[in-house]
Design brief:
Length: 266
Amino acid sequence: MTTSAQTYQPSMIGAITRAVLPWCLLFVIAKPLLSLRWPPPEWSGTLLQWSWFALGDGAFVLPFLAFAVGVTLKDLLGYSRRAFRSGLVIGIAMSALSYSLAAWAVPMVHHRHLVSMGAETADVRRFGPRTPTGILENLRFVQENPPSGYTLEASSPERFPPNVLGWQLHLPVAVAVFGLVNVFLGMLSAELTVDLRRGRRRNALLVLGLVIAVAFQGSQVVAAPIGHFIGSGGLRSGILAAWLPLSVPLAGCLLLPYFIRSRRYG
């Protein structure tokens, strides 16, 4: 059997599925309970609205599920080059899917929903779907025709702040890269906790996964230029705001090997 065939043998796929399924179910159950509206809007919307929410949820959760995938790969394949190669291949695949959903599928479905609403959304749809193509067109228009003042009103995309548009353009890419990094964080976490008893190890991995997820998500919220613009009208770099939160998981990739060596060699 070739290496590529071994990488995707059914036992591995089944193990990865079993690892991520509980997290998916937790997300599906927790999201409606934490919704600010009841019933959640996707429960009473049209098929297009439901598709928009479902695709958005998938794009959001995929990079975080990558941690569980990394743990599973390390447990299955041990400490080998094959584990690294498998993590790289699967991580890239998950990241590509996450980016495709967030940057293309979700905006296109949302645009179709807006079109179905008729003339009342014509201004919102001025530059087409909020895909990278539409955002770039919007950004070029704003740069070539600077407005007297910027706004975040959806009905005035011709007055969107250019830094926010740059942030929207780069954010899906940065989040997709986080998904790839998160696979290796899962692998490192699995190695760090390998000597713990089963129950303690499961809890430790749960805590590590949640800490990484919350830290990355929190840094995204802090770095986002929207709040800064609303608060002070400032136009700090949107590109930097999109990529800066990656410093958190990358720092984890540097710290976890140190803890592994310390635990192994005292």
